[in-house]
Amino acid sequence: MSLSKTGQKLWKELEKEIGEVMTDNWGAYAEFIPEDIHARSKAEIYASE
User: Fold this and answer.
1) What integer pLDDT is reported at residue 45 of this predicted model?
2) Residue 29 exposure: Cα atoms within 13 Å on the Cβ side
């Protein structure tokens, strides 16, 4: 299963519980997170490696 399809499946489970989403600029997020609640920035993203 591709990451985008996995994200879509997860989003269907969570969308009613989430009011705003902040991610980095990875393109796959835009495929399933609605634009009106999706903020893209690296300002609040911390490296986990």
Assistant:
1) 65
2) 12
User: Containing domain of residue 17, as a range?
Assistant: 3-40
Q: Name 12's Cβ contacts closer than 8 Å, sequence gap at least 6.
A: none
Which residues have CB under 8 Å from 19's CB, separation 6+? 37
CA distance 14 to 37: 13
SS3 43: coil
pLDDT tens digits, one per residue of 1-49: 565 788 788 888 887 777 888 888 888 888 888 899 888 887 766 666 5
Q: Let me know if residue 32 belongs to a domain.
A: yes
Tell me phi and psi for residue 14, to 5 degrees. -105, -15
Total number of domains constituting the chain: 1
